[in-house]
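Sorry to interrupt, but I need a hand with the structure work. Could you add the entry underneath, on a fresh line?
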Amino acid sequence: MNMSNYPSFLRACCICGAMAFAACGQGPAKKAAADAKSETGLPPVETKAANTDYKPAFEGQTRIGGVKTVTPYEFKVLDSSLVRPWGIAVLPDGRLLITEKKGTMRLATADGKVSDSIAGLPPVNAAGQGGLLGVHADPDFSSNRTVYFVFSDATPEGNLTAVGKGKLSADDKKFEDVSIIYRATPGYKGTLHYGGRIVEDKSGNLLVSTGERSDLETRPQAQWLSSGLGKIVRITKDGQPASGNPTFADSANARPEIYSYGHRNVQGLAFHPETGDLWETEFGPRGGDELNRIEAGKNYGWPTITYGLEYSGKKIGDSIQVKEGLQQPVYYWDPVLSPSGMTFYSGAAIPEWKNNIFIAGLSSMHIARLILDGNKVVGEERLLADENQRFRDVAEGKDGALYAVTDGGRLYRISVK
C-alpha cells in the first residue's frame, strides 16, 4: 500500500495497526511460547546423599538450583521394537538412523515406522559394553550417502574402539564400500569403556571419543599421549590425523590425532549451536560424572583428579580433586547421572530450551536438561523421570522435536503440545 499521499497522523495509525495485526497473527499460543521463561529458583533436583565429602572447586559446579519448563510439552513412545539402541543420526529428510548394540542399524521415520536391519556392516564385539555405538551422517548425505560409525572391534591384540564408514544404498537396505578408517590402539582383552560418540566439526573433520577400558591395568593410559585410550581424537574422513590438531612439545611420542586427553569414558559429544564449542559428558566411577567444555590440547585429569570413588568405595589414587594444569569439569554429579548421549537444543518450537543441553541418563533414568550462562551451568531439570527407562541417546530432529532411545528399546519423541 502506497501511503505517501496520506497525512502523517494517518500513516502512523496504519503502521501501528499493521504491527498490531502482525503480533496478533502469531496467535496467543505461539506468542505465549515465545515469551515463556522457565521457572527458576527451585531446589536442586538431586536430593540423595553424595558418595564423598569432596568439595566443589567453585560455586555452582554441582547441585545447582532446579528449573522447570513452563511451555507445555508432550512425549510419546513412537516404537518399542528396537534392540538395545545406542546412537541416533538425523538424516536430511528427517529420518533417524539408529544403531543397535548387537551390530545392526535401522531407519526410523519421525512418526515411528522402523525399518528392517540394514545389511553390510562389519562384525562387532558386543560383549560387555561393546557393540555398534555412535553414528554420524555426512552433511552431504543427500548426494554421497556416506555414514560414519563407531564400534568395538575384536583384533588379535585385543578389543578396541574403531571407526568405520560406508555408503547407504539407494534402496536403504545395505551399506556399500564399507571400510575401517581408524582404530584406537592398543587393543586390550577387556569389554568395558569404549567411549564411542562421533561428531563432525565445521572444517569437515571427525571427533571421536575413546574410553580408557576401565581396568587398573589400562586406566593410566588416559594420561599417555602415546596411547589412543581415554581420548578425544580428531581425524579426517579417511581416518588420518586432522590438520591443526594440537602439538605436544614435551612428548616426542604423542599421537597426532589426539585432541584432548585424560578422559575416562566419554559417551556424549556435541557442539554448541552458537559458540561452536565442543562439549562432552563422561562417566565417573562411583560419583564424579562430568560435563566438560573441550579445548584442544587440554588434559581433563582422569585418573589423577576425580570427584568419585572406586566402585568398592575406596579412594582413587591420591584422592585429589584439583591439580594445576588439569581441567576442572564445568559441572559434575554425585550420585551419578550415568551420562550417555547429549545434544544442544537449537529449535524454535520451545524457545526457553534454546541452547540448553539435554543429556541421556542411564542409571538415573531421566533426561537431564541443563541451562548455561556462558560456560557455567545455572539450572537443572529432569525430564521423563517417571518412565523408568535407561536413556541412551538424545538428538534434535529436523522438525524441532527431541528424539531419544532407551536401552529397553523405546524411541521417544518430545515436542511442544
About this structure: The chain has one domain: 38-416. The two ends are 37 Å apart (CA to CA).
